[in-house]
Every structure is written in C-alpha cells, then in structure tokens.
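Q: Hi! First time doing this. I have a protein sequence and I read that you can turn it into a structure. Is that right? Here it is:
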Amino acid sequence: MKYTVITTFHQPGLEQYGQRMIDTFEQFWPAEVDLIVLAENCTPRTTRPNTRVVNLLEASPDLRAFIERHKDNPLAHGRAGPPEVFNPKKQFRWDAVRFCYKVFAKSVAADMIDSGWMIWIDADTITHSPVSLQFLNQVCPGNSFISYLGRGDKYHSECGWVAYNLDASECRQFIRDFVYMYNTDRIFQEREWHDSYIFDVIRKQFQGRCKFHNLNPSWEDKGLAGHPFINSELGKYMDHVKGERKKEGHSKPKEVVLHQDHPYWQQVLSKARR
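A: Yes, that's right. Below is the predicted 3D structure, encoded as structure tokens:
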C-alpha cells in the first residue's frame, strides 16, 4: 500500500512549528512514504528526495478566489456568526478563511496522487518515535474509506489527522464535495464554519454507504474528547502540539490519559513533577 502525507503552513508557521514537523517526519517515517508540503509562499528545508514542496496559493485558484471573495467579510474571519450559536470566546469556530487552506490543500494534493492513502497531518504535529508500515496498515485499513478521530455527535471530529483512501472512488467524491461547500459558500449555512465541522457535515452524508475507521471509538467512556490525537494509537508515534501547547513544545501532561508508559510521554509527565 502506498502512503503520502500532506500538510500546509505559512511563513510564521514554518518558523514556529512547520520545519520541526518536516524534520521529525524525515527522521522517523519510512523512506517509502512521500511527503507533500503545500506551502503558503514560504520555502521549508527538506532532505528527502520524495519530499515535495508545492506553492499552495499558486496551485489553487479556488483558494485564491475564496480568500479574495471574503477578505472584507467579518463573517468569514470569526468576528461574527449565527446569532443563536456564536460565542466570541470560541471565534475559531467561525473563522472560515483561517481554516480553508487545509481543505483546498487536500484537493490539490489528491489531484497529484494517483493511488493509495493520502494522510493529512496538521503542521503543528511532531513525530517522536519511528513509524512503521505495519502501524500505517493498522490505522489505515484497506477496507475503509476514511480514517479519522471522531468524537461522536457532541463534538466535532479532531481533524489534525485524517487519512483518505484514494483508491475508493467515493473518497475522491468526498473531497470534491468538501471543496464544493467552500466554492459555493454553503459553509455559511451551517452552524459552524471551520474545516472540522464541515468535514463532519460531509461525513454524515457518506456515513451510510461508506466505511469510516474511527481511531477514537471510546472517546466518551475514557474521557478523551479534549485531546484524542495523543490518546489514540497515533500518540505512540506523534504529538499534536496544537494551540497554546506550542509554548511548551508538547501537549500538556494532564492530557496524557493513555500511553503514560511510553518514553516520550514519560518525559512530558516528568516535567510536571518537577
């Protein structure tokens, strides 16, 4: 099975976390796995011949059109939202422009990849332990359509990791439908406008006819809604250093529910005891 990892970031992101993501990927991932970086007008450093850097803004006219169309629209930048649900303390949920890059990056990358699994990983993710092809086969089972981190209907999915089986024709249609929500501005008819919420809107449309592989099936029983990435099987190999966690360079010790005996997480936990 072929695997291709994709991600995107801009110049500040490159400096703060993106280069670290690439460096740890190239250190710990199998040589057979390609990496496509959809860079936003920046030039990261790479060492592998199968790491490709593509200028996302040049490659996606749809992205440029969405940004231009909504550059002066406060509704698209988290400053407003549907009155019945808008929360100024959770502005990211309505910041459509900020999170649209990920969606258009997936579309560009899918057109570049002939077959196999396309794995989206947020650029603020580090790989801390060697990744094996056996592990990838486990989290991307061949009979599945998409592998993701679900959190039921109470919370939106955690889309720091989403793997797409491009050998399934329905999967490419899923990506086209995802992009269509942005190209037609239909995202603004939903309750929230960030990519994870829109991902779930499309996922529910495909749920009955396609098999999704949820890497976080016990999220409710084990209290894993807050940071499912590190408490899934992914946490044995990666740390999603999202949001304010970037200040420390790792996830918060109190968030580590599973894998506490792993050497990487033992180091994180030991810092909390000092």
